[in-house]
Amino acid sequence: MADPPPAPPATRARGRPQSVLFACTLNAVRSPMAEAIARHYFGRSIHFASAGLKRAEPNGFAAAVMAEIGMDISPHNPRTFEELEDENYDLIVTLSPEAHHRALEFARDLAAEVVYWPTPDPTAATGSRDIILEAYRETRDRLAGRIKSYLHRPWESQG
Length: 159
Prior knowledge:
Blueprint: E1 19-24, H1 30-42, E2 47-52, H2 60-67, E3 91-94, H3 97-106, E4 113-116, H4 129-151
């Protein structure tokens, strides 16, 4: 009797991922924050990377709020999905609707799970420097909570 066909990559039950990609629109704020936070909590036990739909310049507010918690993202070099052609990921976490659509295309030929974590873009914040920094802190803290709870959850074995 033949084995049943595997579930589509976006819904396949998985063991704990060995390689995770965080994706957003510009790879300048949300996804580099997520990459740094994940690397901080999980070190070398999981490979982490980030990418965006378009390349942007590094963001000073993002670097400032990450430095507040001892993480330096200032050397981050934003990159796009096109630069990932030869890379493979077990899990792709998307942080914007546009990145989610692109990640589903990217993962079509991979055995990757794609999950969407709606994450507000703090670059839309207006007002004083303190108000803008607070928007970035909220994004940082939201990502930290999601990353810790998601990657620490019980995983099915890779049988």
